[in-house]
Specification:
Strand order of the largest sheet: 3-2-1-4-5-6-7
Low-confidence stretches: none
Structural class: alpha/beta
Mean pLDDT: 92
Oligomer: single chain
Distance between the termini: 28 Å
Order of helices and strands: HHEHEHEEHEHEHEEHEHEHEHEHHEHHHE
Helix content: 25-40%
Shape: globular
Radius of gyration: 22 Å
Length: 478
């Protein structure tokens, strides 16, 4: 079902008229999303303003990321800030330019702002955030990106440094809310000591159009899982075998397509009752179909055997299959409770453990679907929320258990996504759910698929045991 106000907002005349008259009508900005497979230079000719505090630790890695990805970099700060950009700028023919925040050129608008705050370790130094972002406040293009780089608060050496690290998260979450009405996003990337080299793939992703519906999120990068020696940015899933459950429609079908675009052979798993739809998706993406009911006690053994015998193993496991059986607890039948907990959580554990003990290859990726409802709770969804919160706990512990094999385990928590399930929600509730986010609209299945696909790539080795919300900065939950 289409979003009337989003479609209305695509009309420049209508936007101007409603703004002039001052009508209280929501006018969300249509988001700019990526088209096609990943490119070597996703930031080609994007104007990106880069700043850093004295003592910032990530300039070398940020410089290489931005230059190699094709950006036109404008520096703010001391002349010494230029040094990390000189060599990659010369190698790729993209010299950097200094930008005077007190004399910004007329009409200057940037695609993104990147600020390295890793040098901040005293509350007084937080003023640097204001000094950098305040003059640039109205110089960000629609659907722009803001990224702040920091260190994890848990690793701070002093209580003051920990306070500053935590302050960055509050700053970014609030800034994301201010920017959302223009379709822009803000993220915080915290990089652990020793994980600096893992920044590049993550920074490329959050600055790209593939992160269109991710907003106000802290994303933590560490070195708990071994990273491959070479990171491919074009067709990063080439030669990989990916299992996607619930692949017949919605998020599952979108994920299957995106993974196939990046080179993966996708095994599309769904219930035998959805044979026609699952087979159609498999044919479209050049993959295989596997018809199994995940709640069947024999499902783990069947899936493990099929992946081993037909494909020699599996590299990526995406647990997307799930159900809702909504009722208030007092009215919920026991079979409704049991079904939601079994399919959404217990079956995920059974299947994952069978694959981890068999066909899952070293260096693999596991991505599980949680939900904002699992983080924040939701009326009439005690069963669903319990199962999705369980996924979060399972993700964190399983990541520790599989780290030695080079396997990452992460969860995705979608917010309001435009699917057949949300189309059935009463219109008033559906409209409120769309607007209760930074971006003022619902996401698309491909938005979740983009995040799943990124976490499945070799470049996501620095992220494990984490929950990434794909919710447009929903105003509920943590």
């Amino acid at each position: 079902m289409s979003d009337f106000f989003l479609e209305l907002g695509r009309n420049p005349t209508a936007r101007k008229l409603i703004k002039t008259v001052g009508l209280p009508v929501p006018m969300p900005q249509a988001l700019r999303r990526a088209k096609g497979a990943r490119q070597e230079r996703p930031l080609h000719d994007h104007a990106i303003v880069y700043g850093a505090t004295p003592g910032a630790a990530l300039a070398t890695h940020a410089a290489r990321t931005l230059i190699v990805a094709g950006a036109s970099v404008h520096l703010v700060g001391e002349d010494a800030l230029r040094q990390p950009f000189v060599e990659p700028g010369e190698a790729y023919g993209r010299p950097t330019h200094f930008l005077d925040l007190d004399a910004l050129p007329d009409g200057f608008r940037a695609h993104a702002f990147v600020f390295d705050a890793t040098g901040i370790d005293d509350p007084e130094q937080l003023r640097a955030l204001y000094d950098f972002f305040h003059p640039l406040g109205h110089r960000l293009r629609n659907c722009g990106r803001v990224v702040v780089l920091g260190r994890p608060a848990a690793e701070a050496e002093t209580s003051r440094a920990a306070a500053c690290a935590a302050a960055l998260e509050g700053f970014v979450r609030s800034l994301a809310k201010e920017l959302g009405k223009r379709g822009s996003t803000a993220q915080l990337l915290t990089v652990a000591e020793g994980a600096e080299s893992r920044l590049e793939p993550v920074l490329r992703f959050v600055l790209s159009a593939r992160s269109a519906f991710i907003s106000g999120q802290p994303i933590h990068i560490d070195a708990s899982v071994e990273a491959p020696s070479a990171i491919p940015f074009v067709r990063p899933l080439e030669g990989k075998v990916a299992l996607v459950t619930g692949a017949a429609r919605g998020i599952g079908a979108a994920t299957a397509q995106l993974m196939a675009d990046e080179g993966a052979h996708v095994v599309c798993l769904d219930r035998p009752q959805d044979d026609a739809l699952a087979s159609q998706v498999a044919r479209k993406v050049g993959g295989s179909v596997l018809l199994v009911d995940v709640s069947d006690p024999e499902a783990p053994a069947t899936i493990a055997r099929e992946l081993k015998e037909r494909h020699g193993g599996v590299d990526i496991v995406v647990h997307n299959a799930g159900v809702t059986r909504d009722k208030t607890l007092a009215r919920m039948k026991p079979e409704q409770w049991d079904m939601a907990l079994d399919i959404n959580l217990a079956a995920v554990a059974r299947i994952t453990e069978a694959l981890a003990d068999g066909p899952l290859r070293a260096g693999g990726r596991i991505v599980l679907l949680s939900s904002v409802a699992g983080i924040a709770g939701n009326m009439g969804q005690t069963n669903y929320a319990a199962s999705k919160a369980g996924i979060v706990g399972y993700t964190r512990k399983l990541a520790e258990e599989l780290a030695g094999a080079g396997v990452t385990v992460n969860a995705i928590a979608p917010g309001f996504i435009e699917t057949r399930l949300t189309a059935a929600i009463p219109v008033v509730i559906r409209e409120a759910a769309r607007r209760l986010s930074n971006l003022g609209q619902g996401g698309l299945p491909r938005d979740v698929g983009e995040a799943i696909t990124f976490l499945s790539t070799p470049g996501a080795a620095g992220i494990s045991g984490r929950v990434l919300r794909v919710c447009g900065g929903a105003l509920v939950g943590a």
